[in-house]
Amino acid sequence: MSSQAAAKIQQDVTTGMDKALRHVQELLKGVRSGRASSALVDNIRVDYYGSMTPLNQVAAISIPEPRQIMIKPFDMTALNEINKAILKSDLGITPQSDGKVLRLQMPPLSGEQRQKYAAKVKEMCEEARVAMRNVRRDANKHADAELKGGGLTEDEHKRLLEKIQDALKEFEKKLDGVQASKTKEITEV
Known about the structure:
By secondary structure, the protein is of the alpha+beta class. The chain has helices at about 1-30, 40, 80-90, 110-150, 155-185, and strands at about 45-50, 50-55, 60-65, 70-75, 95, 100-105. It has a 4-stranded antiparallel beta sheet, with helices on one face. A two-stranded antiparallel sheet has the order 1-2. A hairpin with a 4-residue loop joins strand 5 and strand 6.
């Protein structure tokens, strides 16, 4: 019983922290860097026949050049709606249309913009750290409850708390790597 409770708590910790890490990685894909990336337009929703549809479901998105995103609608009647959706988004890029495809030319980021985006990355990663620490706090409470309820011995409880802390350190280290990588991508000229 006792080792099952400890294993369950450990599994929940790993799952929760991994979820927080993957969530921030997905969010960071949408943060603009100097390079073009289809992830920048993934969250844009287009009014397609009355329903708000993700851009990647109404158009093919490609990167023909390092600073250009090309959007080719599957249905040419959606071209104007896609154009409107991009203009409404917070990308700050005006699409160029030739009647068949939209091209988004990524302007180089100014030093001030790079610092702003780097700060945004730091903020998003800090939120993920808080989420991971909340997972640790909840797991510690669960472990304490198991100890009081007789599900864990003192030694098992102590080992479990150490493993929970080790898991937090491991995931925070991964998060630091993700943050450093994205910040480097943004600050590169």
